[in-house]
Amino acid sequence: MEIPVMTDGKHRKGIAVAAAVLSGVLTLAACGGDDDKKDEGGSQGHGRSAAQVDEAAAAKASDAKITISPKNGATNAGINSDAKVTVSGGKLTKVVMTAPATGATVEGTISPDGKSWTPAGQLERSTQYKITAEATDSQGRQATENSAFTTVSPANSFIGNFTPEDGSTVGVGMPVSINFDKAVTKKKDVQSHITVTSTSGQQVVGHWFGDQRLDFRPKEYWKPNSTVTLKLDLDGVEASNGVTGVQDKTVTFKIGHSQVSTVDVKNKTMTVVRDGKTLRTIKISAGSAENPTYNGQMVISEKFKETRMNGATVGFTDDDGKGEYDIKDVPHAMRLSTSGTFIHGNYWGADSIFGAANTSHGCVGLNDAKGANDPNQDGAWFYENSQIGDLVVVTGSPDKTIQPDNGLNGWNMSWDEWVGGSATGA
After folding, report:
1. How many Å is the Cα radius of gyration of the chain?
2. Which SS3 state, helix, strand or coil, does residue 329 take?
3. pLDDT single digits (tens) 257-310
4. Which of 152, 177, 192 is the last residue of a domain?
5. Is 363 one of the catalytic residues?
6. Judging by beta carbons within 10 Å of its beta carbon (0-12, 13-18, 19+), is residue 177 exposed, middle or buried?
7. From CA 304, how far away is CA 373, in angstroms rounded?
8. pTM of the complete model
9. What is the CATH number of the domain that holds 386?
10. d(CA 373, CA 83)
11. What InterPro entries does UniProt report for this protein, alphabetically (predicted)?
12. Cα–Cα distances in Å, from 290 out to 286, 345, 358, 398, 399?
C-alpha cells in the first residue's frame, strides 16, 4: 500500500507563498524608488541630474576668462615683464598685487580697453607676490582669479652696473663700461642683447675684459655734442647655466665738449686743449724716477674736491707696513686709474717743484692750496674746468703704457685689438 508523501506538496506550496511575498516586497521597493525620483510637482528627476546642474552653472558663469602670468606656484619669475594679467570675453575691474612678507601693495595700471594689467615698476628679487584679479562680462557677470609666484633670486640672476649715469654729460673719452655681478660664460648671448648707439652715427663695438666687464667705445673719441644711448635688454637672457638677467633698461647721456690735456713728463708741463683751442699750459710735477707715472690715454672717471690718499692702499708701505704717505685732505683729485693714479692738487710741495722736478709716487700734481678753496691755484682751475670723461694723455714717462682695463682706458688698444675682444664681432 502506497502512503502519500504530503511534505513535498507542502514544500512546493511554501515556496510559492514565499515567492509571492518576495515579489510583493520587490514590487513595493520598485514603486518606492520611482516615487523618490519624482520632484515636488510629481515629475521625474527630483534633485537635478549632473547634466542639469552643469547646464545651470554654465548659464550663470561669466564669459570673462582671466589669465594671470606667471602661473600659480611659479618660481624664478622675472622682475620686469613676467607679471601680467589679461582677460578675454570681458573687462578687468580690479587687480590687487601684494608682497605678503612685507604687506606692500604693488601699483599697476589697467589698460584703457580693460583687457590687461601690468605692474607700474620693477619687482623685487627673491620675493613672493600674490595677485587677485576681477573682471565682468557684457552681462555684468563677475569672474575672479588668483595666483601666487616667487621672483628670481640673486643667486639665479645677474645684473650689470654701468657707467656713465643716465642723463649725465661727459667728455669725449668716456666709454660705456658695464660690470656684471656674476661671471658671464655665454658672452655672445649677453652682448647681443646690449646695444650702444650714438647720434653721431659712429660705429660702437663692445670689448670683454675678463668674464664680468664689457666696455663699449667707437674707433675714435666720441663726437662732441652727440647723444649716446645704451639699451640693456637682458631680462631672461642666460649668462651661464641657471643664471638669467633681470634688466630691461635704456640709458642716455650726452657728450659735452672735447677736452684733451697732454702731460709732458720730461718738460713737466700739461697743455689743456678744448675743442681744438689751447686753454692753458700748466706746470706739473709727475712721478719720480723711482715711481714714474704711466704713459697713455687716461680718462677722468671720478672727481673729489678733497680726498684722503694713503700709500698703504696702493702698495706704498714702509718697513713697519704703514703707508709711505697719508694725506687726509688732498685737494681737487681726479681719478685716472683703478690702481691709484690721480691728477690732483698738491699743497705740501714747494712752489719751486712745479715745472722743475717730478716728485710724486706716480700721480700728476698741480700747484694748489690746502682746503681746496683758492680758485687762483692751478689745481682748482683744472678741477673746475674738467668733466668726467675728459682725457689726460701722459707722454715722455720712463714707465710703460697703462693697461686698458686699469680704469676706463680702453683707448690704449688698437681698433683691431678692441674688435678682437668682442663676442659678436664688429
Report:
1. 40
2. strand
3. 999 999 999 999 999 999 999 999 999 999 999 999 999 999 999 999 999 887
4. 152
5. yes
6. buried
7. 13
8. 0.77
9. 2.40.440.10
10. 53
11. Big_10, LD-transpeptidase, LD_TPept_cat_dom, Transpep_catalytic_dom
12. 11, 21, 10, 10, 10
